[in-house]
Each structure stands twice: as structure tokens, then as C-alpha cells.
Design a protein that fits this description.
The chain folds into 4 domains: 163 residues, Beta Polymerase, domain 2; 87 residues, Hydrophobic Seed Protein, CATH 1.10.110.30; 168 residues; 49 residues, no CATH class. A hairpin with a 3-residue loop joins strand 8 and strand 9. It is 53% helix and 11% strand. Its cofactor is Mg(2+). It is an enzyme of class 2 (transferase). Its EC number is 2.7.7.72. Keywords: Magnesium, Metal-binding, Nucleotide-binding, Nucleotidyltransferase, Transferase, tRNA processing.
Length: 488
């Protein structure tokens, strides 16, 4: 009976064989020039997990200048954008068919170590001279395995294969030293926990708890990149729990652990933190395929689901009779979400979209208690704008009640709203609601020049359009003249 490690080796052999021709040829090029070359990191780990990659990472004894010269001969294109860190990239265009029919992209890095200057937010690069030394400076043992080329010799000095079989994240060297060299590795522990579903080794976890504050020296852009990768994983909950449980979230996303102290206003959840993680999972389950309205993975929807209730700590009030309220937490939450995402250097559009979804996530509540007018439905669609499909999913995901009857009632009510939206869309082009008269027509009818009065008239006509649906040009002109006369 084979061991888990032996099964992983067999799986890796099949994957490496499929990617081997280009990799072996590159290894022969480096060997002929007197240099070592090894496939390292993620591609090796993924091979053991049965995943093939056309983007390959290599480590070499060659200097960056030597590597650049060799890749220029091997590839059809090459670039030196990472040369200061010892990395040269190259692309070889597709040759043949099947697995060998895709472009191959490689990055080759000189043996190295990354260390932080205590006074700097950027790593200092120092080049090494051995493969084992280079692997010792990797983040985790599962990423510290290599395959020497061109002979395909497996190298595993830190027992990463055993950890891979156990589903464990452990640092190759003492975790305190590893995280001191590069504090971002603590974020990567959370990210790989999400991406791979692995547990973090107890000693490694303790070091993160003790050193969480050191993440503050890492730039916001690098922290954001790791957080984004975590959130875009198939099951990000485990990684987020690592962030919160270790104290890392206190430094990079403090709004999330703050939710642990809150009691959900409906008293149906242990705390709002757990509710938010559940909402995230339910939102992910509603993402669509590549041709659907919200293709997976969707960063905006996931951020909005995670942050939709961050305004609750600041708005919590204890009511007479033992109740708890969070009035206007959606408005406060939108501001808090925007502030945090800006601090993490997210793109402006991401910040705008996420904060808007947080602001709108409660708008649907009350729909089931009394019929909305067509005007209310139009405003719901108009306010959501291009975020409507995401808002549909966020609103549905926000229902985490264990009361099946109430859950079904909420679902049915939202289905009814969606059907009304579709009916109005078919009648009125509801996705692009505009007044029956445009600015030019308004100026012609009223005999006025461009200015604030044109905008006021446009807004008045838009309100009528929302309230009554399409008016037609004749009635719109009558309403416009009546409004203008009343102003005069």
C-alpha cells in the first residue's frame, strides 16, 4: 500500500512530464553554459497537487546578466523588469499541439535572500550561491521544493512533501527569523490557508501572533495584493480566520475583528463577524460562470459581502427592553469601507463600487411588508446602476436566518422584486432611465442658456419620470412649462 507521499510523487511525475520538454531544454541551455537551473516554488507544489502551469519559476546559479543572455537565445521574447531583484522573464511561443501547444512563460531568478532593513518598507536583495540556501529563504516548506534540470532530480531539504501530504504550512527555518526577514510571509500564511485549505503549523502560528505588528513596515500595495489573492480563493473563510485569530487583521483590516464584539440585531448569529463570513460564502455561491452577469471570482462583490456590516460597531445602541439597534449602519459602513480600501490602495472604482453596495445593502428590507410602487422599483434600479446584479446577490446572501420559513419568505419577496424589475425593464428601458427631454430640448423650450437652471429642470423631469414612467414629449413639455411658470 503506497504512502500519501508516494501518491503525490506519482501525480507530480505525470504533471512534470507534460511540462518537461520546454523546461528540460532550458535546463540544458543553462547546463551547457556551466550554470545550475531548478524549477522551484508554486509550479512544483502545484505539480504534486495535480495542477499544470504554463508559467514556470526557476532558480539559478547564473547572475542576472548571464540569465538574460541565455533567455534571449532560448525564448522568443524576454524582459528584465525584475532585474534589480535578480529576476529575468521570457516567453516562448506555442510549438506543436496539445500540452506543448501553449505559450510557455518563465521567470528565472538568481539564488537569493530577501531581508528588510528595519528602517525601510522595501526588501533588500542579497544573492546566494546554492539551491538549498535559496530554498531555505522561501516562505513555506511546501514552496521550498525544487526539481533540478535537465535531469529532473527532486530536491526537498525541508521535508515539504510530507507537509504537503499533511496539508500543513510550516516555515523552512525558524518562523521568527523567516517573518523577520519578510513580514509579508505572515499574510501569505493566511492566503495559502485560503487557497490550499491547509492548516498553519502551531509554531508558525504562534510566531505570527507574536510578530503581527511587524506587518506595519510592509507597503500597503503589497499587503493589498495578498489580501486580494486571499479573497479571490475558492474558499477564503479559512484565510480570513487566520488573519483575525493571529491579530494580523488588527493591523491590515481592523474593521473585521471589531465585528466579533457585536450581537446581530436579530439575535440569530453568534456575532456579526461570523454572520459576515457566512454572507461572504453565500455571495460567492451566487457568482456566475464567465458568461454570466457576475463572473467568479468577483472582488467587488466579495469585498462588499465581507464589509457590509462594518458600520455596526459605531452605531450600536441598546434599546429599552433589551433590544439592540444599528440605525444607519449602512451609511456609516459605506464611509468606513471606503476609508479602509483607500488606505489599502485599491483602485478608485473598486472603492466606489464596494462602498456603494455597502450603502445600498439594506434598501430591499421592507419590500415584503408592503408593495413598492413602480417609482420605488425604478429608483432601486437607478440607484444601483451597473451594480444591480451584484446588489441582487449581496441582498440574497445577507439572509442567514436559520428560520426556514422566514428565509423562504425573504427569498420569495426578492424574487418578486426581480420579476418586477424585469417587467419594467421590458416596458421602459429601466436600466437607462432619463427624462423625456434632454438638456438641449429644455433650453429650446424655455429659451434659456446653459447654466444651473437647466440641471434643475432636468432633475425635475427625471423625478417625474421615476414617479410616473414615460411621459412622452408633449406631456413632458407641459410639465416643464408648469414647473418653470411656478418658479417665476
Amino acid at each position: 500500500m503506497s504512502t500519501p507521499e508516494q501518491e503525490l510523487l506519482r501525480r507530480a511525475l505525470a504533471v512534470l512530464t507534460s511540462m518537461a520538454p520546454a523546461a528540460i531544454e532550458l535546463g540544458e541551455v543553462f547546463k551547457a553554459a556551466g550554470h545550475e537551473l531548478a524549477l522551484v516554488g508554486g509550479p512544483v507544489r502545484d505539480a504534486f497537487l495535480g495542477r499544470t502551469s504554463n508559467d514556470l519559476d526557476f532558480a539559478t546559479s547564473a547572475t542576472p546578466d548571464e540569465t538574460q543572455e541565455l533567455l534571449a537565445r532560448w525564448g522568443d521574447a524576454h524582459w528584465d523588469i525584475g532585474k534589480e531583484f535578480g529576476t529575468i522573464g521570457a516567453r516562448r511561443f506555442a510549438r506543436g499541439t496539445g500540452a506543448q501547444g501553449a505559450d510557455v512563460v518563465v521567470e528565472v531568478t538568481t539564488y537569493r535572500s530577501d531581508q528588510y532593513d528595519p528602517a525601510s518598507r522595501k526588501p533588500v536583495v542579497a544573492f546566494g550561491d546554492t539551491l538549498d540556501g535559496d530554498l531555505s529563504r522561501r516562505d513555506f516548506t511546501v514552496n521550498a521544493m525544487a526539481v533540478r534540470l535537465p535531469d529532473l532530480t527532486f530536491v526537498d531539504p525541508f521535508d515539504g512533501l510530507t507537509d504537503l501530504a499533511r496539508g500543513l504550512l510550516r516555515t523552512p527555518i525558524a518562523p521568527e527569523r523567516s517573518f523577520d526577514d519578510d513580514p509579508l510571509r505572515m499574510m501569505r500564511a493566511a492566503r495559502f490557508a485560503a487557497q490550499l485549505g491547509f492548516d498553519v503549523d502551531a509554531g508558525t502560528l504562534a510566531a505570527v501572533v507574536a510578530m503581527a505588528g511587524r506587518i506595519d513596515i510592509v507597503s500597503a500595495e503589497r499587503v493589498q495584493a495578498e489580501l486580494t489573492k486571499l479573497l479571490l480563493a475558492d474558499k477564503p473563510r479559512k484565510g480570513l480566520e487566520v488573519l483575525v485569530d493571529t491579530g494580523l487583521a488588527d493591523h491590515v483590516l481592523p474593521e473585521l475583528p471589531a465585528l466579533q464584539l457585536e450581537i446581530d440585531e436579530h439575535h440569530r448569529h453568534k456575532d456579526v463577524y461570523q454572520h459576515s463570513l457566512t454572507v461572504l460564502e453565500q455571495a460567492i455561491a451566487q457568482e456566475t460562470g464567465p458568461d454570466g452577469p457576475v463572473p467568479a471570482p468577483d472582488l467587488v462583490l466579495r469585498l462588499a459581502a465581507l464589509l457590509h456590516d462594518v458600520g455596526k460597531p459605531a452605531t450600536r445602541r441598546f434599546e429599552p427592553g433589551g433590544g439592540v439597534s444599528f440605525h444607519h449602519h449602512e451609511v456609516v459602513g459605506a464611509k468606513l469601507a471606503a476609508k479602509r480600501l483607500k488606505a489599502l490602495k485599491y483602485e478608485k472604482q473598486v472603492v466606489k463600487d464596494v462602498s456603494r453596495l455597502v450603502e445600498l445593502h439594506l434598501r430591499f428590507h421592507g419590500y415584503g411588508d408592503g408593495a413598492w410602487t413602480d417609482s420605488a422599483v425604478r429608483r432601486y434600479v437607478t440607484d444601483a446602476g451597473p451594480l444591480l446584479e451584484r446588489l441582487h446577490r449581496l441582498t440574497r446572501a445577507d439572509s442567514t436566518t436559520r428560520n426556514r420559513r422566514k428565509a423562504q419568505r425573504l427569498s420569495d419577496a426578492y424574487t418578486d422584486l426581480e420579476e418586477r424589475i424585469e417587467a419594467l425593464r421590458a416596458q421602459e428601458e429601466i436600466d437607462a432611465i432619463r427624462p423625456d427631454l434632454d438638456g438641449t430640448q429644455i433650453m429650446q423650450i424655455l429659451g434659456i442658456r446653459p447654466g444651473p437652471e437647466v440641471g434643475q429642470a432636468y432633475k425635475h423631469l427625471l423625478g417625474l419620470r421615476m414617479e410616473h414612467g414615460p411621459l412622452g414629449p408633449e406631456r413632458a413639455e407641459e410639465e416643464l412649462r408648469a414647473w418653470w411658470a411656478a418658479r417665476r
